Task: structure prediction
Amino acid sequence: MENIRILIIEDNEDLSFTIENVLKKSKYKVKRVSTGEEGISIIKKELIDLVLLDINLPKMNGIKVLRNIKEINPDILVIMMTAITDAKPAIDAMKIGAYDYLMKPFELDELKIVVKKALETHELKREVDRLKRQHEIDHPTNKIFGDSQYLQKIREIIAIIASTPRTSVLILGESGTGKELVANAIHYSSARKDGPFIKINCSAIPDNLIESELFGHEKGAFTDAKNMKKGLFELANGGTLFLDELSSMKLSLQPKILRVLETQSFRRIGGVNDINIDVRVIAATNQDLAELVKNGEFRDDLYYRLKVMEITIPPLRERKEDIDILKKIFLDQYNKEFNKSIKGFAPETDNLIYNYSWPGNVRELKNVIERAVILCNDEMLLPEHMPLELKELNTDIPASQSPGLGMVSLEDAEKHHILNVLELVNGNKSKAARVLKISRSTLREKLKNYQAE
Ligand SMILES: Nc1ncnc2c1ncn2[C@@H]1O[C@H](COP(=O)(O)OP(=O)(O)OP(=O)(O)O)[C@@H](O)[C@H]1O
Ligand SMILES: [Mg+2]
Result:
């Protein structure tokens, strides 16, 4: 608690002096002022953790000051001080966001305890937030799986970027390739991991709102601006701002983004002061940005600025070696989620999955497996649990890979035939056994062996 800064706003000089002394003895850094106006100007300029605020102040009263403080920084702890004869405003203050109140006259020990408790609770809350975030990072749904050379390279780049906390990053890749996952990984493995990670999808917000969303606005900046509003750049201070679908940001706004990247400062709409921030920007898009630049639909200066650190995630069909681990991970996840214990993929299902082109990339694979797990009441995921598009004739499978055609062993031909029949009867094992003229248990046995292969 050594570096805690406390501000006393109290017009009674004697009381304020006494409080200052007590708190200084407890090793807090203390400042004191006698009016709300002075207090607010300090809070605007300096970092304050806790305010002891008198309710009955000359000119601007304590409730008004509290409102102002909460607007400037809602994280500041405020403890109200009020005369015992006048408890109502103290209760109002709690509703506006004061942490606690002290009734005058109070014992100095009581003051120390209330301050200490407030700071401890605050600290605890931050610790809980930190643990929650840690838990999220460790959660399997936030891990990047895949051992293709591409993903190995991407992991290396993420590690490098993580150690350069200011560099902006551009993530490119088709829809569903894992751009958001990579952005998450960058933030949570960087020195900014305890700071905020704020996301905005530029294509989901109407053009006319996005600017005030990003930069905030001053009170009265336009007709609807009844209060000051912080923008996302400000909220992301100390952390990372993820601009998703950046390509859909209108051209006129792009120079303003570039300016923030270059100066690490911005202005609220209607504001006159530059506000300094410390934010890393990560942008992502599934569009071909270079092409958009060529056509004049995206500004080249912003593109080149972002391109300094670029990560391109190849489509899944170009890194098929990742499919194997991904499908197993997703099966695991959905087994848990739906309380099932499906053991794996029947060989024919494996073929379907491998040979499909996955236009929706990893997201599509994930969805297909989720659906299959829901549908499946067998030990294995069978072709019948796969959606139609995977079964549509895939012309790019070479004949040699397709068992049962040409030079294959009797065993493989049998396997192929059995799986074929199974598919024709929509996975109904009794029916398949009848068609094949074997017993149901023999069929089960054979299927189990295929899985073990
Ligand atoms: N390598 C991977 N390992 C594990 N899960 C992955 C991987 N890549 C993607 N995913 C999962 O696939 C889904 C889609 O990923 P994500 O949302 O990051 O894609 P995106 O590129 O941002 O897509 P879009 O362009 O549509 O926004 C998510 O559920 C994500 O967790
Ligand atoms: Mg995305």
